Amino acid sequence: MALIQGLCEFLPVSSSGHLVLAQAYLGFIDPDIVFDLVLHLGTLAAVIFYYRQTLAGLISELRLLPKALISPSILSQYYQTRPDFRLGILIIAASLATAVLGLTFRSFLTSLFSSIRAVGLALLLTSAVLALTALVKPGCRAIMTMRLSDALIIGLAQGFAIAPGLSRSGLTIAAALILGLNKQLAAKFSFIASIPAILGGLILSLSTGMTSPLGLKYLLVGLIVAAISGYLALKLLTVLIDRGRLPLFAPWCLLAGLAALFYINK
Description:
The protein has helices spanning about 1-10, 15-25, 35-50, 50-60, 65-70, 70-80, 85-105, 105-110, 115-130, 150-160, 170-180, 185-205, 215-240, 250-265.
């Protein structure tokens, strides 16, 4: 389970969808909330470590935000001239869009976790989106030409990915590429935007209970495996995106979706 979470959290194949299918195959009835939290902490640690230098720059720049909010002219100046400040503002905007959509439709989207048929259909949709990126011409837009509307669209795509089977990384990176962002920015923005999304999901999960039949040893193994596999998945995907290989994951999602629909009819 930890390996599935680590690899599929960042590879564009939907970790939640694969976890639902794995749990059904293994005969799990009720999810272990604590174990799920631990796995997400592992992948959160992976993305923070991978982008530690970029995050340090963002934190340094966003310290200027209180001063900038007092003066619209200063805010505009920083936004137009400081790349990391602009990136930070756009990440915040995308995260707000994700939060609004996620909280508004949370009950419906989370209810899909109990439907293998819904997971299968969502995986087929993810496959179609990934295949569509093969038709998109490589973009050249960098951070200083990225608009607020771009961030909001990517944030909304991330919000829909709460549904199991819809890949968060797949939808957000595909949206960024369709909007004309260059490959490096598309990957970086998608993965950094995942940090507040994962944190928000963890905070919401904390309210559902904190019990686990597993001992500390198993929780620790899950944390380590999810963190290491997540880091390796990040490295792999950034290379594949740079080479324009995102559509390679479309057949896998297609097969997984068909397998889920076949499973429901057994």
